[in-house]
Amino acid sequence: MNGEVDNQPLTKKQRRALRREERRLEVAKGHRKGVIGKIVVVASVVVVIGGIGWLIVKGGGGATTPLAPDNDPFKGSVTAKVVINEFSDLQCPACKAAEPVIKQVIDTYGDKIKFIYNNFPIPSHQNGRNSAIAGECAFDQGKFWEFHDLLFDKQDTWGNISNPKDTFVADAISLGMDGTKFAACYDGSDAKKRVDYDESEGNAAGVNSTPTFIINGQKIVGAQPFEEFKKVIDAKLSAVQ
Question: What is the domain extent for residue 127?
Fold first, then answer.
């Protein structure tokens, strides 16, 4: 076929598959309204199946690829109409302080929200960017949230190390990750590009400090009490019902 799609008429099964993909892509498109859209499209890879080419769309809970830097770790439902984007720095003390409230938000709202983590390392934090890169490498092995929690717990031990790579690799291994793959990812360019991508989205959205949360377009800045999040989330949920 030389990479070309056959022009024969589609079967009923193929037409249904295409309609399902169109609906899924519309969902992904709709979520881009709240903040510079960050959602689920991981790969635009054309696969020839029964004579037709279609797009494979994958959720944000697994590994990413160089073709799709905008695939981020999230909790909640991929199709939730209320999307919370957190812009955070793993070396940021205020981000660590916000964690109990974030966990309360996620536990309270569950599948009613999609909570997305975005890297936004602060230049004054010595290892903010390095920890963001390490987080992306943990994401590639399906261990982002465990690594995220561990780095916050150990923030004081790695924050001012001149070269934290060995510490991060040891932490990855302690969580059951492949240390060799993690180290190769950390030294490579893909994870760095994904951090750059997150930063560019944060800058475009007017983020200038961490943590910053954008809930369907409305910002909450800093480690705020649960009631502040509840007020905004409840209003957004009411608006989309």
Answer: 73-240
Side chain identity, residue 190:
D
Give the position of tokens 């475009």: 204
Give the CATH number of the domain where residue 207 resides.
3.40.30.10
Q: Answer yes or no: pTM beyond 0.90.
A: no
223, 98 Cβ separation under 8 angstroms: yes
Domain-embedded: residue 35? no
- The structural domain count of the chain equals 1
3-state SS of 135-173 is: HHHHHHCCCHHHHHHHHHHCHHHHCCCCCCHHHHHHHHH
- Contact yes or no for 237/112 (Cβ under 8 A): yes
In a domain, 182, yes or no: yes
Distance CA 168, CA 173 (A): 9
Amino acid at 64: T
CA-CA-CA-CA torsion sign (218, 224, 228, 230): positive
User: Residue 34 domain-assigned?
Assistant: no
Q: Is residue 65 part of a domain?
A: no
Say which amino acid occupies 21: E
Q: Are 102 and 115 in contact (CB under 8 A)?
A: yes
Model confidence band, residue 71 (pLDDT cutoffs 50, 70, 90): confident
Question: Tens digits of per-residue pLDDT, 28-52?
Answer: 444 444 444 443 333 333 333 333 3
Which H/E stretch holds residue 29? helix 12-30
